[in-house]
Design goal:
The chain is of the alpha+beta class. The protein folds into two domains: about 80 residues, TTHA1013/TTHA0281-like, CATH 3.30.2390; about 120 residues, Four Helix Bundle (Hemerythrin (Met), subunit A) (Up-down Bundle). The protein has a four-stranded mixed beta sheet with strand order 3-2-1-4. The termini are far apart.
């Protein structure tokens, strides 16, 4: 049966950027200068998210999506305007979540990680440079992605040294500990973080987005075919 994808619009306080976020598909979010442009960009990335849904075993459900349905508009932060990335919590992020919903979101987060791993293993070590020769190579992108995730994992008490995340065994252990910590915080009704409190839904989707954003960056800058 055909269905619509729920989409939230996070609007920067100065109106410079809008981010379209699909709350039911962690990691699927795109920003642009206007609402229309953000929604169009999100639509363009639906096909790129399909491999994630397949890795999560949700390909059939994802394939039924025929259009999008904007269900919420909410204010972003200065970082929303600057980066064009979601940095604010929606009302959906703050809703109560069933254990089944949590399990689904963690399953999709793991699929994002699996997709990232596949990309980093098949793209070229050297990445395509910008018009002025700027940009990062693959290993730099990978290290940056892991470093950011390590910081977010600390919000749920997971302390993983960065060099540990650079080994397959250490990375797998970190990811398992991260997911388990999220489950533990959920069971205790706790928000992530000690000072700045993050809803667990936001923590999951923010981690998934960052993972996919850099996976897609590596795909776009891959020099293998060239």
């Amino acid at each position: 049966m055909a269905s619509h994808m729920r989409v939230m619009l996070e609007i920067g306080p100065k109106g410079k950027k809008v981010v379209a976020v699909a709350p039911d598909w962690p990691g699927l979010a795109r920003g642009a200068a206007t609402e229309e442009a953000a929604l169009e960009r999100l639509r363009a990335y639906v096909s790129r998210y399909a491999p994630v849904s397949r890795l999560a075993g949700m390909e059939a459900a994802f394939a039924t999506i025929t259009d999008i349905d904007v269900v919420e508009r909410y204010p972003g932060t200065g970082s929303t305007d600057f980066w064009g990335i979601s940095f604010a919590f929606s009302s959906i992020d703050q809703q109560a979540m069933s254990s089944e919903a949590l399990a689904r979101e963690l399953r999709l987060l793991r699929a994002c990680w699996a997709f990232f791993d596949d990309v980093r293993l098949r793209v070229s070590t050297e990445m395509q440079r910008g018009p002025r020769g700027g940009g990062r190579d693959r290993d730099h992108i990978v290290r940056h992605t892991f470093a950011a995730e390590r910081d977010w994992a600390e919000k749920v008490g997971v302390l993983t040294p960065q060099d540990v995340m650079l080994t397959d065994e250490g990375l797998n252990a970190h990811r398992e500990a991260y997911c388990q910590a999220i489950r533990d915080y959920y069971s205790q009704g706790k928000l992530a973080g000690k000072v700045a409190k993050w809803p667990l839904r936001y923590l999951i989707r923010h981690t998934a987005f960052h993972t996919l954003d850099h996976a897609w960056e590596m795909e776009d800058k891959d020099l293998t075919a060239k």
